[in-house]
């Protein structure tokens, strides 16, 4: 599942973004992009709805195990939704590079319910950490 992309900003330098859109836009892009909205670009709510629609479509094929490759954004949006949080709070969840998760969903009349999450962050442990526990 795809991450949210600001197509108008692709290929621009930080300086060009600040000049064209303002330093507030640059700051939001670098620190809290979930609140950033640009004319003609997908909003965070629209992106989260796209991910939910994808999951709902996948659930129309019950009794199948599927591998879905995703960026961290869609993963966090699903977690926030499952916990009843606003999608803008999805950055509460830290997902390191090469992480993977197992999600179990229960189809419902209007969409789905997340019933189980198992997540493994695969970032390397600090040197010597395991040796200290012997």
Q: What tags apply to this protein structure?
A:
Rossmann fold, 2 strands, alpha+beta, two-stranded antiparallel sheet, 134 residues
Description:
By secondary structure, the chain is of the alpha+beta class. The chain has one domain (7-120): Phosphoglycerate mutase-like (Rossmann fold, 3-Layer(aba) Sandwich), CATH 3.40.50.1240. Helices cover 35% and strands 14% of the residues. The chain has five helices and two strands; from the N terminus they run ααααββα. A two-stranded antiparallel sheet has the order 1-2. The longest helix is centred in the middle third of the chain and has 15 residues, at 44-58. The radius of gyration is 18 Å and the shape is globular. The protein starts with 13 loop residues before the first helix and ends with a helix. 14% of the residues are buried. The mean pLDDT is 83.
In short:
With 134 residues, the chain is α+β, with helices and mostly antiparallel strands. It has helices at residues 14-21, 23-31, 44-58, 72-82, 129-132, and strands at residues 100-108, 111-120.
